[in-house]
Amino acid sequence: MKLRPCIDIHNGKVKQIVGSSLRDAGDVASENYVSTREAAFYSNMYRELGLTGGHVILLNSVDSPYYEMTKKQAFGALLANPGLLQVGGGITADNAQEFIDAGASHVIVTSYVFKNGKVSFTNLKKLVKAVGKERIVLDLSCKAGDECKDEPESYYIVTDRWQKMTDVKLCSETLDELSEYCDEFLVHAADVEGKQNGIEENVVKLLADWWKRPITYAGGVGSISDIKTLKKLGKEKIDVTVGSALDIFGGKLKMEDVITACE
Fold it and tell me: What's the structural domain count of the chain?
């Protein structure tokens, strides 16, 4: 288990937000932290700390008037340390190579491969053809759905910056099917993202039971105890992203302590 660092960019600034509050209309979100630093600053920090495989996320839609500002920041982080970070947000088969050329090790994709609540295998195959499965991370961010009789809680993949529910259930069958088209998975537990009130334990258990590809979990980490719980439930297989709780983003957890806890 290791820490996967993050750089979330919204309206041209590095931020930490409450994921469920993000709205494309008006480009608004509840903010936990807004940095005065450029994204490249954090990219260099992560390199110096020896952290790899982190992700840069563009939180504005491609139609947003802020998108180009956000993209410029993302490119700054990628170009500062080619191959260090992954990138997601508005990625399609048409623009994926542009981000790879800018220094991304992988492109992270959700909305492009989920259309009308279903998996678009047509788009998924286009993406693989464009950059190769070894360069693809599928973001299977999820929210809790209706309770089922046979399960305490079920989760469904959400797209468009956690705003649209799909009909695709996060389960071993889905992971098996989609793993044929990617190198890794990134899973935000959107209901707890940015709230620092604890992890979504059922999601972690599900991912650990399936584990056949590298997986990074994000959402709800607010303490070292949360990391230890994730480490145990994740059977030391599941990597973690910590955002708002970190001292570099205005939180109370020291980066060094989090790295040590993950190790």
Answer: 1
Encoded tokens for 72: 């410029």
pLDDT computed for residue 77 by the predictor: 98
Write down the pLDDT at residue 148: 44
Packing angle between helix 39-48 and helix 67-80, nearest 10 degrees? 30
The CATH number of residue 187's host domain is: 3.20.20.70
**Residue 11 included in any domain:** yes
Cβ atoms of 164 and 115 closer than 8 Å: no
Does the model's pTM come out above 0.70?
Answer: yes
For residues 142 and 258, give the distance between their C-alpha atoms in angstroms, rounded to a whole number: 24
79 occurs within a structural domain: yes
Q: pLDDT per residue over 123-140, tens digit each? A: 999 999 999 999 999 999
* Structural domain includes residue 32: yes
Q: How would you classify the pairing of strands 85-88 and 54-58?
A: parallel
